[in-house]
Amino acid sequence: MSVSPELALTVASVIKDKALEQQTNELISLRKQLHACHEIEVTGRMGRPVYCRGSFNDGNFRELKNEYEITWEVKLINETCDEGISLIDLGRLEIRLGGVVYATSSSMVGTQCKVRGAASDRSRDDLICFFCSGERDTRYNRMGNMHINFRSLPEGPTKQLQSCYLFNCRPENNDNRTDIFDLVTNPSQYPRRIPNQKADVTSISFNVGSVLKLIRNIHRDEEFEKKKETYIAQAEAQVEECIRIRF
To answer: I want to staple 127 with a disulfide (CB 3.0 to 4.6 A). Which of 1, 55, 73, 148 is the partner?
Structure first.
């Protein structure tokens, strides 16, 4: 039978056991530090305000259709109640893992954004923004997707985003793709046209190859462990192939 540190601390206080009380306080402090190391936050610049947060350990594997990559998706809890995030502020975000900046809005590859409702895209998110921080073809990349939902986006901008996405999907347009993220966040674009528009970041999907060490330390039931082993092997093979091709 296990005893929670909080209960042990209460008992130590009652029986006036100073040594046990000190050890229990240290255990509680270490547990808080461990939790903080796995906390994910989406914030403004310099870490404020905190728009939403979640725990890396609560994530799960997600396969995006038409993608060779398996991602580790962490759902986020909105911390701003009814306020949401303005479109301008979407362009000033920081994605933090364990309090450290993992990626920022400037890491978004706007020409690779996906839009719901365009062609066969059946995503539950209005906008999926791919980000890449650092060298994409090395072991030290930081890649993933930021999932965004708009709050009642007007029909005009919705259709425009869908059209831009379809345009970007055509191979003949590879050299002339539209930066969808810039269209949404640039002060001279949507923030000017629909200044009261709000959005929510609903989740962050990390490329498995970018967070292998963290995923290896997560242990669940037998089914999860088998899936984890398979996906980690795939991710490692993809990373090695990228490095081989590049060098």
So the answer is: 148
Q: Using alpha carbons, select from 87, 99, 174, 171 the residue that is nearest to residue 129.
A: 87
The answer to whether residues 156 and 128 belong to one domain is yes
Same domain, 153 and 185: yes
Residue 141 to residue 209: CA distance in whole angstroms: 8
- Count how many residues are written for the chain: 247
User: 18 and 139 share a domain?
Assistant: no
What is the residue range of 8's domain? 1-37
Q: Which residues does 225 contact at the CB level (< 8 Å), separation at least 6?
A: 219
Beta bridge partners of 206: 72, 144
Shared domain for 19 and 48, answered yes or no, is: no
Handedness of CA 220, 224, 226, 229 (dihedral sign): negative
Q: Are residues 16 and 45 in the same domain?
A: no
Render pLDDT for 44-78 as a digit per residue (tens, 0 to 9): 999 999 999 999 999 999 876 555 568 999 999 98
* pLDDT tens track for 160-181: 999 999 999 999 999 999 999 9
